[in-house]
Amino acid sequence: MELHFFPGQNLLAIKKGNFYVSRYDAWGGPSAVGNDPRMSEEPTWPGTYVIHSTHSYVTPTWPFSKIKWGTPLQDKPQLNDVYYQLPSKKWGSVKKDTGIERKSILQTYFSYYGKMKVPATWVFNDFGPIAIRWFKDSNGNKILDNKETLSGQMFHTTPQNEAEVSLGKPVQLGPSHGCIHLNPRDRDTILNLGGFKPKTTFVVHNYNEKI
Amino acid sequence: MKKFNWIISTALVLLTACNTNANGQLTWKEDGSVIGNMGKKSQLDIQGIYDSLEYKGISYLAGFKIDNEGNNFPYIAQVPNDLSSTQYWAFEHIPNDIFIYKETVHVIAMGGEVYDLKDGKWNLSDKKFPRESQIVYSDNKDSLIVCHPASMEKTGDYNSGCFSTTNNWRLNFIWFNIMPKVCNEQLYLVEESNNSKLFKQVNLVTGAVVKSSPVKNVPDNICNLK
Fold first, then answer.
1. Other CB atoms within 10 A of residue B128 CB
2. Widest CA span of chain A, in angstroms?
């Protein structure tokens, strides 16, 4: 089984033997570098890669992604704050650790779910519950070794799309900064099919290539 | 006796500091508890208070009423500094900042809609500012400096900066939660990028950057930057 992404068609396909057996909506980065001053959008770089792992992703680059998806929360209106559970099981301040205010959490949750409340768990990580990582396998052994590094581009869902699925609404994918956005339902389907198993070959085609 | 006198003096000073404040304004806490200028205490029906404005002896506080299921309902409470009465107004959208414009109390909602308070009612005005805008300067007449942050969400709008409503200048720069502030008759701002922060001092009238320097550690009050 191989994964093939055609960024010009917003299409991800599973290939078995010589045949593409299933196709999914998937949105990558733009065909040319963009001008987001926070982090420039970039193309999803064409090439042949190897799937490495599947895990929840956190990064200090994006405030909402400093906290892992699903982290338990405690509403603290009397302090105008929201607490989140630390790996030590103690509680930390969202406001202090991420700069995100309680009113912004309420506003963001309202924009996704239509309810102005602090959810029980963190559902705002920009990378969704899990990210699927890949790397350029320069020595062809399908193992991340020597000077190989994980790509900063990855498959993931978005909080907006996760909310749409949670509410039973149709999913509308949007463009990325270079990662590949998936419909959460398709992510689960591909996971169940074994498409994101480590060592799976993954090909990003050129923007002008069509399936 | 000398020691005893010192204890009494300290206790008096502390009591004074807790119950009133120097400029006769109301003091409040995030949990909705307020203390009036005469030391009277009260508990408001809102909590999660995150913004306030005092104007002509009346305080306006933004917070939420919260039901048993955790649903929040945005409100503004109007409280005279002597706590003689309290009025609440429900808002459909979260008020982001309370300010004075043309000597009238205004509020800007998270989406950028502006409301003014006239005859005890909030009216949607024809003004609309960028989402999450804050008024960092008002002369209480018609001059405002408005700042709006970049979205902290990866898929959100990255347009951000500050502008003057009367002096025809605009600065586009990235900021998230270090809100620009007027200090020493200049606009102090910290421009954020992935790897660095740049402190800038801006002329309020012209919008010209008077001074710019890299900064590593940003104090809680950016007026302390030099």
1. 14
2. 61
Radius of gyration of chain B (CA): 20
Relative to beta strand B33-35, strand A201-204 is unpaired
B47/chain A closest Cα distance in angstroms: 6
Nearest C-alpha neighbor of B55 from the set B20, B104, B128: B104
What is the pTM assigned to this prediction? Answer: 0.90
Question: A103 in contact with B at a CB cutoff of 8 Å?
Answer: yes
Question: Strand B87-90's sheet: what is its strand order?
Answer: B47-55, B58-66, B72-80, B87-90
pLDDT digits 0-9 by tens, A109-165: 999 999 999 999 999 999 999 999 999 999 999 999 999 999 999 999 999 999 999
Q: Contact at 8 Å (CB) between A59 and A65?
A: yes
Q: Which of A35, A36, A38, A101 to mutate to test the interface with B (most CBs of B within 10 A)?
A: A38
Other beta carbons less than 10 A from residue A35's beta carbon:
7
Measured in whole angstroms, the distance separating CA A167 from the mean position of its chain's CA atoms is 19
Prediction ipTM score: 0.88
b (16+ CB within 10 A) / e for A92-108: bebbeebebbbbbbbbb
3-state secondary structure of B176: coil
The Cα B15–Cα B29 span in angstroms is: 18
Closest CA–CA distance from residue A58 to any residue of chain B (Å): 13
Contact yes or no for B18/B41 (Cβ under 8 A): no
> What is the bridge-based pairing of β-strands B144-148 and B134-138?
antiparallel
pLDDT, tens digit, 9 for 90 and up, residues B182-191: 999 999 999 9
Burial class for B116, CB neighbours closer than 10 Å (0-12, 13-18, 19+): middle
Q: Do A100 and B72 touch (CB under 8 A)?
A: no
Pairing relationship of beta strands B134-138 and B95-101 according to DSSP bridges:
unpaired
Whole-angstrom distance, CA of residue A75 vs CA of residue A60: 23
Interhelix angle for A184-193 vs A159-166, to 10°? Answer: 90
> Is residue A153 within 8 Å of residue A45, measured between CB atoms?
yes
Angle of CA points B139, B142, B145, to nearest 5°: 65
